[in-house]
Amino acid sequence: MLSVDFAYELLKKEEVPEHIIRHSEKVALISLCLGSFLKHVNNPLLDLKVLTVSALLHDVKKMASLKSGENHAAAGYKLMASLGYPRVGEIIYAHIFLKLPKPGEPIKEEEIVFYADKRVKHDTIVSLRERFSDLRERYGRTLKAIIRMRLLEEMTILLEKRLFKGLPFSPSDLNKLNNVKEVRDVLKNCLESSPDCWWNFLRA
Questions:
Q1: What is the mean pLDDT of the chain?
Q2: 3-state SS string over 8-22?
Q3: Which CATH number is 11's domain given?
Q4: Structure pTM?
């Protein structure tokens, strides 16, 4: 059964390193925070449990894929599909291979996790500008890579505008989630009592 505890158990079973878990926790905090408000404001169909579990597990195969050479998003999809959770697998796959939404489409879980991942540098929530600056420095070794990252940054900036339209806080307010302690407990508690649960952190 999908739950926050299930996600942590699977991370342990797959021997995911601690630094990747810390990164994934921040992605999950952003995802659930955004998802809670988006569900309340304009999209009641968002599945917050699926969203949170997918965020926690989006890099579940990252370390293993470094050894196997397989794309970690594709490997994550295969793992979750084999466990009977293809929807979680689809969201994991989309954190690298996001399909742009059609005009007028409601926001989907894929978009939230994709965006949240682009806001976390290692295990710290930062601005898109800082995150993409770091990505260019680390991976921009060829002109093709630099162009691809620039296009990805522009797409993510547009996605940020789409996600925050109508929300009662700004993208920079998410940086306050860096102060969250006991992430596992916060995710479990706020999954049950969102979105009011998040104001304690956003107003800090």
A1: 94
A2: HHHHHHCCCCHHHHH
A3: 1.10.3210
A4: 0.96
